[in-house]
Amino acid sequence: MDKLLITGGGPLAGEIRVSGSKNAALPILAATLLSSEPVMIRNLPHLHDITTMIALLRSMGTELIVDENLGVEINGSTTTKTTAPYELVKTMRASILVLGPLLAHFGHARVSFPGGCAIGSRPVDQHLRGLEAMGAIIDVDAGYITATAPEGGLRGAHVLFDMVTVGGTENVLMAAALAKGRTVLENAAREPEIVDLANCLIAMGAKISGHGSATIIIDGVERLHGCTYSVMPDRIEAGTYLVAAAATRGSIRLRGIGPETLEAVLVKLVEAGAKVESGENWITLDMEGRRPKAVNIKTVPYPGFPTDMQAQFTAMNAVADGVSHVTETIFENRLIQTHEMNRMGAKISIEGNTAMITGTERLKAAPVMASDLRASASLVIAGLVADGDTLVDRIYHIDRGYECIEEKFLALGATIRRVAN
């Protein structure tokens, strides 16, 4: 198992291009199962989760052609199996997103309960309730979800989610695209990745409105056609590099990303003392050599502060000037990385779902172990601001969500390399 060896000390400085969004690409890949014609998806990031989703589609007999730039042409109509096996689903929670498309297009789906990061309970009951509202018959047995569409196919329904759920919104949205009649999703997730999925479905011929708001309206169509679609840039990757530059008192220019999906993050970075400028597809951040100021964070669904950026800001706050409170309201285990940061000299205490952080000038290098994807990124940031050599273990989490992370940090002047176990 590989590790990352990081020598901290200097500020990051330079320019990098933001990769395509993992969290948008995965549901979009699943959505191609809805089409009766080939769909070309571009700007896919080179990530383990993407190759896992491609392998999952192939395991169901779906024909795929991958080009040299990891653009993928997928012919969903060639799918011969409607079972997503445990061996693939166990490694990636987003595998559950094939449930709605398989059910809507083929009338049947059998999907193993998903795995993924150990950041807390993420039940799929909202997914299942939405599909049941459209007439699906759901059975859960031996670790598998089996769903069968009623005679004549899924039908439009009014679905009120008990809680904001990104995956649930995506699954029901995709299923509704081929349902008979109108489906209205209330209390729907508003994330930019939901908007990207809806825009891809619209390019395939779906009739959708309200995406980006809490109410999404879908008028089902008989069939979806092919298209070429480019995945949006990864706002979480962009935010991670911005925070890393702020924590190291550096400066950075990001290409291929606009500010509109990062507003909550940019507001907090300005509050931390960063000079931030942006244009249509670029963002710059400059700390002008200053130590960041401590900022309070509370994670909430979009458009509020994203849970996927909490760990990175916790790392920045560990070396910031002042005392901060970071409250995690989405996942109960997402403050677990603070224990590893304390091993590096951070001053963090936990009460319930809130971390109280007293910033210190520098951290001290230590071997640390990542527990999930974003915790991995936060420990890399901690290593960049620590004196000495930090060894980050279990970086397979990083490879699930960050494309070429060591190459990009090297381009920013970091001293970082991958080492064998």
Précis, in short:
31% of the residues lie in helices and 25% in strands. By secondary structure, the chain is α/β, with parallel strands linked by helices.
Describe the structure.
With about 425 residues, the chain is an alpha/beta fold. It is about 30% helix and about 25% strand. The protein has 14 helices and 26 strands. The chain has helices at about 20-30, 50-60, 85-90, 100-105, 125-135, 165-175, 190-205, 235-245, 265-270, 310-320, 335-345, 375-385, 395-400, 405-410, and strands spanning about 5, 15, 40, 65, 70-75, 85, 110, 135-140, 145-150, 160, 180-185, 205-210, 215-220, 230, 250-255, 275-280, 280-285, 295-300, 325, 345-350, 355-360, 365, 365-370, 385, 390-395, 415-420. The chain has a 4-stranded mixed beta sheet. It has a 4-stranded mixed beta sheet with strand order 2-15-17-16, with helices on one face. It has a 4-stranded mixed beta sheet with strand order 4-5-3-14, covered by helices on one side. Helix 10 (about 310-320) packs parallel to helix 12. The longest helix is centred in the middle third of the chain and has 13 residues, at about 235-245. It is elongated and about 65 Å long. It starts with a strand and ends with a strand. Mean pLDDT is about 95; it is low at about 115-120.
